[in-house]
Design a protein that fits this description.
It contains 7 helices and no strands. By secondary structure, the protein is mainly α. The protein folds into 2 domains: about 1-60; about 75-115, no CATH class. The longest helix is centred in the middle third of the chain and has 20 residues, at about 40-60.
Length: about 120
Amino acid sequence: MLNVWLRLHTSARLALRAKIILLAADGRTNQEIAHQLRTTRRTVSLWRRRFLEGRLAGIEKETRSKRKSKVDEAAVRLILRKKERPANVTRWTIRSLAKELGVPSATLHRVWKAYGLDRCRE
């Protein structure tokens, strides 16, 4: 089943997890698996344990946080309303506009990306 599952999933993370379980089923040690797959023993141990606890569902779970970023709505409105170009330059850069508006450049970048705006807005 894992071999079929491995071929069907394109995610590199899921493929690594499946390979870990398959090699473990062949009787390989965590160190051997880590060496062969060029990962850490800690990673191998984690996914072997999760497989034992939850079978396939245990290794399908995403481990990274999917929390939404908390961007202040007032900052979003401020960023989206800024239309005029700066004096003496042809366009805004993320850093220059962030400094002008008093918001973090990462916030500005997230807003531009979310609203499909150009990187250097004209």
